[in-house]
Write the structure tokens for this entry.
Amino acid sequence: MQFMVSILFFSGLLGSLGHCLGMCGPLVLMVGAQFSGIAWTSVLPRYLLYHSARIVVYSLLGLLVGTFGLLIGMGARLTHIAGIISLIIGTGIILLGLRYLGWLPLGRLEGSSDLISGMMNKALRRGGLWGLASLGALNGLLPCGLVYSALLAAASTGSPVKAALAMAAFGAGTLPALLILGMGAGMLSVRARQVMSRAAGLLIMLVGVQLILRGAAGIGWVSHWKLGGVMIF
């Protein structure tokens, strides 16, 4: 669990420095435009409300996929069946990571949803604290390959609570860069953002590798491995 939380936090952190600044950055700047001329001490709580709503949505999605993981038996002691499921999920994470990086011919998973975009426009026009919270929550539902990969990794915990905590850690990792961007100091070069995005994709693919090894160990193909008191696979 510690390994999962750490990986998702740092993938969120690196992904926010690279990918999120490009995808969510314009939205954050649009939100910031509403605060022009307002003292930063008043603006910060509003940004925190916006991002808190986004992270809450990530956590709720984690709760959902964790419940699904529990139902298919990932929370039980690894058996041959659970080992096979772990192999499948691990492979899925690696494939999602490859598509997120654009290394598969099917391209990236990110896109725009007309329904979500329309709802976000309404929330932006509504303004106020409720509109701001709604906008942040909808931001958490935007199609994103990195989020999909994180959710698949969270599902492998086989626990709704652990999955929710893992996704909260992922969301917390994305917070610093987007807060800095809101302050107008997060303009990284395109090249730097590409490097960060690739680092985030590769990092989350480590979870896929871990799950494949865990599944292989459950089936008996390889031995389990512990590092200190932490079960790696």
Observations:
- The longest strand covers residues 226-227.
- The two ends are 11 Å apart (CA to CA).
